[in-house]
Design brief:
Layout (H helix, E strand, L loop, with lengths): L2 H18 L8 H8 L3 H8 L2 H17 L4 H7 L4 H24 L21
Helix pairs in contact: 1-6, 2-6, 3-6, 4-6
């Protein structure tokens, strides 16, 4: 994977955060990293990055706001209605879960159920 594509991933995630507050939910991280064939260490770097930490922080703050939260979250996200805040939170959380899911799939070794699948046999006792 080239440095350019990794930079583009960070750019697309940052842009998707901005677009989410305008209710534009266009970016699907899982499809993007699958098509670009990202390596596991690249996704791990993303998960540990400040971009992912920022994303996690926004999701946490939106969750607080939706539940009635504190005064700070009400001031920060008061311009959003609760249903809109819920949609934004779900979209941003999906970006995080997609990265975790892809990182788990890229573990080395044979995937369960891919080869040498044994046929189930029924044992009859006499």
């Amino acid at each position: 994977m080239s440095f350019k594509e990794t930079d583009e991933l960070y750019y697309l995630v940052e842009k998707s955060i901005d677009d989410a507050f305008e209710e534009k939910f266009l970016f699907d991280l899982y499809v993007y990293v699958k098509l670009c064939e990202f390596k596991r260490f690249e996704i791990r770097d993303f998960i540990e990055s400040s971009t992912a930490a920022n994303l996690s922080s926004i999701v946490f703050d939106l969750e607080l706001y939706i539940k009635g939260g504190d005064e700070i979250s009400k001031q920060a996200y008061g311009h959003l209605s609760i249903p809109k805040a819920r949609r934004v939170k779900d979209y941003l959380y999906k970006i995080l879960t997609d990265s975790w899911k892809y990182e788990q799939e890229r573990r080395p070794g044979r995937k369960p159920g891919t080869k040498n699948k044994r046929k189930r046999t029924t044992v009859t006792h006499k």
